[in-house]
Write the structure tokens for this entry.
Amino acid sequence: MEEKLLRLLEQDCSYTNEQLATMLGITAEEVKAKIAALVEKGVILKYTALVNWEKTEREFVTAHIELRVTPQRGEGFDRVAERIYQYPEVKSVYLMSGGYDLGVTIEGRTMKEVALFVAEKLAPMEFVVSTKTHFVLKKYKQNGVVFEEPKKDERRVITL
């Protein structure tokens, strides 16, 4: 029941308690209590909207940065990640497997601003071994949502 409730909220957090209750076969009061308990336990952290910024006037760039770092003695990668996620430009930090250690997503007004953030804030950190920056050029899908459906070809086939 808890997992189903979480999946529904993850799919669309604008569902009302009454709608969720109908989908789950319980009362709205039970839904409210379950959500409150999940918030209290730190399972539900925040409710957000997924925005297609391409359709607004806001100008910004997103970059994914691969970081190779030296873990801190006794604290591993956690202390490193904590120091990095303190910056407001940083939108996410993930511990990764493979060719690099941390995946960092940042936003800035321009590519230059992002490049300066990497060069002046991330790269000089004593535990950072190397960085590799990838700029996002276009978003097609995020959190399971397709940003723009493909345009249908309205041309007709003419055969002789």
About this structure: Residues 94 and 139 are 19 Å apart (CA to CA). The mean pLDDT is 89. The longest helix spans residues 28-40. The first strand starts at residue 61 and ends at 69.
